[in-house]
Amino acid sequence: MHTSMRGNVALLIAAVIWGGGFVAQSAGMDYIGPFTFSAARDAIGFFVLIPVLLLLTDGRGKALPARLSVTRITLVGGIVNGLVLGVADTFQQVGLMMTTAGKAGFITALYMVFTPLLGYFVGHRLTKRIAFCVLLAILGFYFLCIAEQFTLTFGDLLELGCAVFFAVHILTIDHYLLRQADSVKMAWVQFAAAFFFSGTLTMLFEQPDTATIWEARIPILYCGVLSSGVAYTLQIVGQKYTDPTIGTLIMSLESVFAVLFGWLVLGELMTGRETLGCVLVFAAVLLAQLPLSFLTNCIKKARP
Fold this sequence. Notes:
The chain is about 80% helix and about 0% strand. The chain is built from 15 helices and no strands. It has helices at about 5-30, 35-55, 65, 70-95, 100-110, 110-120, 130-145, 155-180, 185-205, 210-215, 215-240, 245-250, 255-265, 270-290, 290-300. α2 packs antiparallel against α9 (about 185-205) and α5 packs parallel to α8 (about 155-180). It is globular, with a radius of gyration of 20 Å. The chain starts with a helix and ends with a helix.
C-alpha cells in the first residue's frame, strides 16, 4: 500500500473511533467532572502505549528504560503536543456542558478552516481545490449539526477555542514529525503531558472519588484505550504521510460517523438535512483525495 494511502487509512480509522466515542465522552460526565474524565483517559492512553512501544522496539540486549527512552526532539514534541491537546480537550469537555451537541460538533469542525489558515502563516501551501473542499465540508457540517437557530453562548466560544487548539495540535504534530520525531513515542509522551495538564486542573477544581470514577469506567475505558491510546496515535502516524489540510478533512469525518453510529446502533433517525450534510462532507473528502489528472479528464469528458 502506498505510504500516503496508509496515512489516509490511519486517519480514517481514527475518525471512526472518535465518532463512536462521542456518546461515551458525554456519558462519562454523568458521573465525573470534565477535568477528571480527561485526566483518566490520558492516563489510560499513556499505559496502553507501553506494550505497543515494547513490541515496536528492538529489545535485544536492552533494559526496559533503554527501550522506552526518547530522543530530545521526540520529548519536546510530545510535551508541546500534549499541552496543546490538554487545552483543546478541556475546552471541548467544558463546552459540552454549556451548549448542544450539534452546535459543539459544528463549531469544533471549524478546525478544518483554522488549520490551513494557521498553516499558511508558517509556510504551508493551500491550493484552490483544497480550499473549496474545506468550504464544502463546512457547509456539510452546517446541515449535519445545526437544526435550531444559531446563537452564540459561552459554551460555543469554548468550542471555538477547542477548534483553534485542535488546529494548532495538527500543525505542531506535523512540525515535529518533519524533524524526525518518533511518532509512537511522541504520542506516548503526549499523553503524559496531557495527563499532567488535566490532572492539575482536577486537583484544583474537582474532588473525584474512586466510586464515581468506577461508575464511569466503561466510557473512560473506551475513550482512554480507543479514542486516546489508539486513535490519537493513529493520528500522529497518519499525519506522517498526509498533508495537514487533507488530514483535517479526513479526521473531520468523526462527526459524520457519530451521526451514522447513532443511526445504526441507537436507531436514531437521520433527517434529509442530516443526510445532505453527510453527503457533502464525504464529497469534500473524496474530492480532496482524487488526483488532479483524474479530475481534469472528467471535466474534459463532460464538455460537449
